[in-house]
Write a structure and sequence with these properties.
The protein is mainly α. The chain contains eleven helices and two strands; from the N terminus they run H-H-H-H-H-H-H-H-H-H-E-H-E. The longest helix is centred in the N-terminal third of the chain and has 29 residues.
Length: about 325
Amino acid sequence: MDRLLITLGIIFVSLVIGYVFQQYVNAGRIPFSDERMTALRQRMQRIALFVFIPISAMLSLWGLPSPDSRLLALPLLGIAAWVWGGILSVLFAKGLGLDRAQTGSLYCCGTFTNIGAVGSLVAVIFYGESAIALVSLYRLCEELFYFSVSFPIARWYGMDDGPLTFRNLRFDPILRVVICALALGIGLNLLGVPRPAFCGHLAAGFMIVATVLFLVAIGMSLRPSRMARYTRQWLAVAVIKMLRRMGQRVPEDVQVIGYDGLRAFGDQDYYCSTIIQPVEAMAETCVDLVLQDSHANTPSLLCLPVRYAYGGTTKA
């Protein structure tokens, strides 16, 4: 439990630091333009990618007690996870009848992971600094696969038409640095060069610093207020799930109804019975009232017709 709390605490505090810095910039308390803000975020991410993460991985591999040839299977396992995640997401999208854009979004959720920063942090906190080497080997081909395969597929789903074209496999600078760091760590290990005792703590510290830099950069671009538009949706889902865990049947025992026409996916069936408000008629009525020459006869209350849509959470 203590390790879990430490992990969640590091993640939360890092995001809050970045978000608070963003709010100070927006309020004018820190003289930063949008361009400088973006440049700072990118610089923090580059420092993590090109300095802290490679050094941490090198030191961890150097200190592995007994390198095993089976470790070479870790990059293949990583590729298999990304491939199967993408395939399953596309199959689920077809089963749900999603359109191309929605399928592309679900594909991104299925194939992309955040094991590089947050995953490494969890590995270090729970399993020690030797886990850094395993994570680094597992995600060895991550950038290569994402840029050459995943991004082109996601872009293709976002287009109305056009052929699917994959990028040529290329060894970007990040991949080169990671490969060199891993090769150096493995080489020092196989040559029997003793690793200084402090390097283990240094590897774990560097990985934590890299994760903090990533999360602070994310916090600097975080927009929590945008989640407010989905409050009713997740609240309805949370209520339904809570009732079912309590043994209450929906709608046999408890009926749930919304009032904003929320849907599960795009034009799919409603997952919560709802009252659909005439949004277009409401907008047109408001405009007509504003443009009236005289407001003397404007009624204090206007009622527009609404309609009910069954979604499975009411009896009829």
